[in-house]
Design brief:
The chain is α+β, with helices and mostly antiparallel strands and about 130 residues long. It has three helices and five strands; from the N terminus they run ααβββββα. It is about 30% helix and about 35% strand. The two termini are about 25 Å apart.
């Protein structure tokens, strides 16, 4: 997908809808199947409520993608274009329109946006912050 093909109003509604759907459909992972303790349904509902207040009108940015957490064959390396769809202090949820997925990025002290490979759907990607 190209930048000009993204409907920004639809993108915002899609993120809001996905956040709400996550709160409704979340089921904790069975004990022993995750690192650490799985979050309770109540905690996810609380987090998602807070996340919904952090959604912004999408705007274009460029970010530095390292994708260190991805397998080498799935890494998207270099400066990439994306739309900011949610902000929580220095953490930003971006929609990478070329990859057609969401990525968690961090605003560095010099203003640069960097990402290290947390990608996927809007809700679980932003929950990772």
């Amino acid at each position: 997908m190209q930048q000009h093909e993204v409907d920004l109003r639809h993108l915002r509604r899609q993120v809001e809808s996905e956040f709400l759907r996550c709160a409704v459909t979340y089921e904790p992972a069975p004990a022993g199947t995750t690192l650490g303790t799985a979050w309770s349904k109540e905690r996810v509902e609380h987090e998602v409520e807070a996340m919904a207040t952090l959604v912004v009108d999408p705007f274009f940015v460029q970010y530095e993608s390292g994708d260190d957490l991805q397998l080498p064959e799935h890494r998207l390396i270099g400066v990439r274009g994306a739309f900011v769809v949610a902000e929580d202090q220095s953490y930003l949820l971006l929609y990478d329109f070329e990859a057609e997925d969401y990525v968690l990025a961090c605003r560095q002290s010099d203003g640069r946006l960097t990402a290290w490979g947390i990608r996927g759907d809007a809700a679980s990607t932003f929950l990772a912050r």
